[in-house]
Amino acid sequence: AQSVAQPEDQVNVAEGNPLTVKCTYSVSGNPYLFWYVQYPNRGLQFLLKYITGDNLVKGSYGFEAEFNKSQTSFHLKKPSALVSDSALYFCAVRGLSGSARQLTFGSGTQLTVLP
Amino acid sequence: DSGVTQTPKHLITATGQRVTLRCSPRSGDLSVYWYQQSLDQGLQFLIQYYNGEERAKGNILERFSAQQFPDLHSELNLSSLELGDSALYFCASSVEHIGGANVLTFGAGSRLTVL
Q1: Is A29 helix (H, G, I), strand (E, B) or coil?
Q2: Distance CA B54, CA B56 (A)
Q3: CA distance A27 to B68
Q4: Per-residue pLDDT tens for B44-85?
Q5: Does A51 lie at the interface with B, CB-CB under 8 angstroms?
Q6: CB–CB of B106 and A45 under 8 A?
């Protein structure tokens, strides 16, 4: 069965500093990988996805993610954090066949950007 | 506004009762997904419908059922409610019925509180 691990429940970073939210995954075959963000009292919003090709994927709001096949990781990054980036971030993976084609989410990482 | 509409936004009920959550997908989307978000279980996939037919089942309890109607809106029925069913229930929609790089668009959720 596929799985996603977000090892940090909470990440704090100062405004203007770079941020990284970590994600590792386990899936058979080549993965489709996603990042979603959830603001308070809102649904999840799509940030970016990796399908194939370039290991650095650029998404919404200045976020990017780096796919590393050997480390089975897909870390979310942003060069300069904003207070408005404070939210709950979810990494998700989808496999290629059977039940793996459903999106499996990690447990989420609460990002707090301090002014 | 994501285009996915969920009602009601909040619902408080008692143990043993039955409730119905409603979802209207984004215009043009044929697939509807239901997810449960709770503090201890995270985001759990419940069930998927595509154009009126059930496509995939996840961790959905037998007390729960869903359907998708000809106008593509979907309802999630929760019966014999228990305290542990208190959670945020999300509906999401997508164009495709098969995963791949398919991006899900989420509604704002229905918060269910069982007392």
Answers
A1: coil
A2: 6
A3: 30
A4: 999 999 999 998 898 899 999 999 999 999 999 999 999 999
A5: yes
A6: yes
